[in-house]
Design goal:
Elements (H helix, E strand, L loop, with lengths): L1 E5 L2 E3 L5 E2 L6 E2 L5 E3 L1 H17 L2 E8 L3 H11 L3 E6 L6 H15 L4 E5 L10 H9 L2 E6 L1 E4 L4 E6 L4 E6 L3 E5 L11 H6 L5 E3 L34 H14 L5
Parallel strand pairs: 1-6, 1-8, 6-7, 7-14, 8-13, 9-13
Antiparallel strand pairs: 2-5, 3-4, 10-11, 11-12
Helix pairs in contact: 3-4
The structure holds flavin-adenine dinucleotide (FAD).
């Protein structure tokens, strides 16, 4: 089983502060990490490999420091990494095209796993776009995956209902956070990751003449002002007033 995992390096969104004068997020100096749900995607890939054997390749479009993040994924259990440098100009079209071209270059693949969405921009576009570009089937928002020899089934939770989809290979699956608990690599695995290959592929070796189709017009923080209403009377009275106020503001139906 040849498995490809698309993993994105993101800024740690919990560390982002908003510049109060410009209302813009301050992105400089924020720690970077692998998008959380992409670790779930890799964990699922490792489980499939444990069942069927095979190879896991992690692909990242990102800046040079993403190499350190790829090493974390190799320590978790991926066999090989591919890093494609971010182009000067990029949008969803460019990132998905680069990932699709890299996957074509890798050649043999049965399953491509992505997160349902990245934990910074959360557009959820990249997985389905890659499947479209490769003209293969896709199953999105999987909360469980069962890979068999000739087919794979995946379940999506719809609240009161769940939908189970089945596909032959090759297939692209996007997974949710609930699918599993990503493993923590041991010290031996962390040391061993240094010997696993990370290939760096130039954009020009994959595709030429790519132009963005969408422009981000503005990125701004949204301030949430607190009302600072305090109910100080006896508890029963205060609870009643709190419920009335929440209902008035539409928080309670
Ligand atoms: C400084 C900056 C400028 C930008 N400018 C623009 C712009 O002008 N126009 C515009 O449209 N967009 C712009 N973007 C957004 C950029 O194109 C997106 O980061 C990218 O396309 C991925 O979108 P997403 O994070 O919403 O991915 P999602 O679709 O939410 O991610 C889903 C899954 O796809 C995979 N994936 C996503 N990105 C990658 C990656 N890089 N490498 C490997 N796997 C990946 C992962 O498995 C992930 O879980 C900009 C981003 C930054 C940081």
């Amino acid at each position: 089983m040849n498995i490809i995992v698309c993993a994105k390096q993101v800024v740690d969104a919990s560390e982002i502060k908003i510049d109060s004068s410009s209302n813009k997020p301050i992105l400089e100096g924020i720690p970077k990490k692998i998008s959380d749900i992409d670790k779930n995607a890799l964990e699922e890939a490792i489980k499939i490999k444990e069942k069927h054997n095979g190879k896991i390749t992690v692909v990242t479009v990102g800046s040079a420091d993403a190499k350190e993040r790829i090493k974390e994924l190799l320590a978790m259990g991926a066999d090989e990494g591919v890093l494609i440098p971010y182009p000067d100009k990029y949008d969803y079209h460019i990132v998905s095209t680069l990932l699709a071209e890299a996957i074509k270059k890798i050649g043999e693949y049965d399953i491509i796993l992505c997160g349902e969405a990245s934990t910074d921009l959360f557009s959820g576009q990249i997985g389905p776009k890659i499947a479209g570009l490769l003209d293969i089937s896709q199953i999105t928002y999987a909360q469980s995956v069962n890979a068999e020899k000739d087919k794979v089934t995946a379940e999506r939770n719809m609240g009161e209902k769940s939908v189970t989809s089945e596909s032959s290979y090759p297939v692209l699956i996007t997974v949710t956070k609930e699918i599993n608990e990503p493993r923590l690599p041991s010290l031996m695995q962390i040391l061993g990751a240094a010997n696993k290959p990370i290939n760096e592929w130039d954009i020009e070796s994959l595709v030429v003449g790519l132009e963005p189709k969408i422009k981000t017009v503005e990125l701004k923080g949204v301030s949430m002002d607190r009302k600072n209403i305090v109910f100080e009377n006896n508890l029963d009275d205060s609870v009643g007033k709190l419920v009335d106020n929440l209902a008035k503001d539409g928080v309670l139906g």
